[in-house]
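Self-study notes.
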Amino acid sequence: MHVNLAHDRSMLASAHASAREAMGGAARGPWVPLLSAVLKLAGPEVEFLRHAERPWSSATFSGSRHTIALAFTGEAAITAGENLIEALPEHEFTIPRQLVADAALGEVAHEAGPPARMTVELELLLLEDF
């Protein structure tokens, strides 16, 4: 699946509306804007594989930990993936009512192909900021 930003914005808006409706009007967590921001940062050649969300808390903060898996197939896509890996730790995410406290690379796997393919797993910690 290659990312078409206009189509994916519509798809994410529909998913967000469905989640809000299923929960009686309350949206479930910040996963939709987070996923949208990560896909935009990754570029149009990215393939979304999966997302997982777990609650997280400490003595003073609460939030959620997110794992996002992406694939990059072909030379141009792999270059975009390498750019994502380089940019991720310092990227300033704008997620409503959330602070991205940590954004790190969890795992990278390369497949020789053809075509060559790189999969990455990203770990992001979001803290509630009300």
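Second protein, same conventions, sequence then structure:
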Amino acid sequence: MYLVHVFLRAPEGAEFPEAAGEAVRRLARPEEGIEHVVDRLRAPAGPVLGVYVLAGDLHQAEARAALVCGRVLAKIPAFRGWALERAGVPLVAALCEWA
């Protein structure tokens, strides 16, 4: 399972739609492997969805998360005018020794 961060860009003055994670789960197809969505993440660049995806590899997970979130932006009226900036797995330096 991969955690994919999907960075969104809001139209001027827009508020983050309620139940965004629920919309992602509802529009995901079973074969896309979407397991869970956290919809209230904030980053300096703007709103972020945390999408947990079952996939064979990192690239497949990122592609699936982007595909499903793109579907949400296209089909859910509350997301009219929103854009998907990027989708990527956050890289973490595991067991790193710092000098």
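Instructor comment on the second fold: The mean pLDDT is 90.
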